[in-house]
Amino acid sequence: MDIQPIRTEEDHTNALREIEVLWGAENGSPEGNKLDVLITLVDRYEDEHYPIGASHPIEVIKLHMEMTGRSQADLASLIGSTSRASEVLKKRRALTLDMVHKLNKGWGIPAECLITPYALERLHAYSPRLVSKAGRRTANPVRKRA
What we know:
The chain is mainly alpha-helical. Helices cover about 50% and strands about 0% of the residues. It has helices at about 10-20, 30-50, 55-70, 70-80, 80-90, 95-105. Helix 1 (about 10-20) runs antiparallel to helix 2 (about 30-50).
């Protein structure tokens, strides 16, 4: 087995080509052992040269929902309400410890992926309810009874 450390992009490319050739080799065979070693070397090289930053907690939830076929309604039933689920997914409401716990226990999302602090999206300065048809801001959105 002629395996060298991966130190350059060329070494990396060559190792990936060799992995493609060996893919599907039987475990325990010389080819299978070579495949295992090459994958380990490529993993280490990629971890050092192409680090993946922490994912945004809401993106983790959305990806999990997409991968498992879950909907916003499923999230709502897990965390308590439709409006709360909508606000969380739009980054207008922060995840609470209780929500993180429910997502971890109910859906199996690692809590470590959900506890990263993040900024909330701000609502627009003028709510559409406060703007008249003429485009002017109204004093009070509540209509007075006649």
